[in-house]
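To assess whether ligand presence alters the predicted conformation, the chain was also submitted together with 6-O-phosphono-beta-D-fructofuranose. Input:
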Amino acid sequence: MKKIGIMTTGGDCSGLNTVIHRIIRGATLRGWDVWGILDGTDGLCVNPPAAIRLDDMMLPIENARLAGSFLHNGRANALNFETAAETGRTDVFNKQLRKSLRALELDALILIGGNGSLSLAWANRAVYRDVQLICIPKTIDMDMPLTSRTIGFDTAVQELTRFCDQLMLTARSHHRWFVVQAMGRDCGQLALNAGVAAGASAILIPEIKFDVDSLIEHIKHSQPDYGIIMVAEGITLRGHSGRPADMISRKLTAAGIVNRTAYPEHIQRAGDTTATDRILATRFADCALQAIENNETYVMTVLECDDVHTVALSDFVDAGEIVRDPKIPDLMTSNAYVSPDDALLSVAHDMGIYIGTIKK
Ligand code: F6P
């Protein structure tokens, strides 16, 4: 019989409870013992480690669709890999984590995390030397290389689309525009996908150059004379500071275009998990459990051409564009941006959406 642990780290998103539920289900059917570590790495920093034994009754199936993590993701001000590195406490922090994992006597740990969590797990891989480490990618930003989908993205697109759908009705009544700021850090996937789904008139993302005068011309001649201008939070405007939606809104106002800003914020991370995210969570959970059976370690589950399999965590870190943080020399994050060849860019352009300067 195996003893496995589950840990959710980084920002939450919808779909975490589904993946936790499916891991418990699949592991229980195998006769394994399942433990949930509470609050991500915070739960490993206390003696004894904060962990609870999990069974089907603790996370009932009807709750598996709810956003957030039943296990919590940790407090923002807690000691973690990043703050430990910033304050020169990496060795102490890592030792404590390894000690806790040993104390729990886990055979394997399933870590559900985003770019930061997974690249930090690799950078500090000695922590996980005594367990099989299997990672599952989740994030609403969809900025992780090697996988064409991450848990939480589809639900975030759905929530942001729903938000725009409501705004569209009031926009129509007053012949005016809403500049909606999407999350996504420096990646435009969420803004692009929800923008197309909601029928936005313009979509501005960090990966594609845009020109404010062209945007203004486009909006002035748009029919109908109301709608959504989707702005990714990662865009910048030379010579301007402040929130991207505010910057664009001020420019539009100066050009005589009546508009309001709207910030869906963390609603994008909430919302009942969509069927697509639930299926992905179920497939990733199944793949992770199989990886444990196959004695794999330091791997991540991915979706590639509708096939779910594992890839080496080192390949994941090597794959994306590497961003180094000067304060934390070990930290490397990989970002998978919207590619200039992304078919959705060209579709958006063909549908009359202002998207900036794209290759055709
Ligand atoms: O990475 C997920 C994300 O929701 C980003 O899209 C966003 O920029 C950030 O986290 C918000 O972080 P916080 O919850 O700390 O405000």
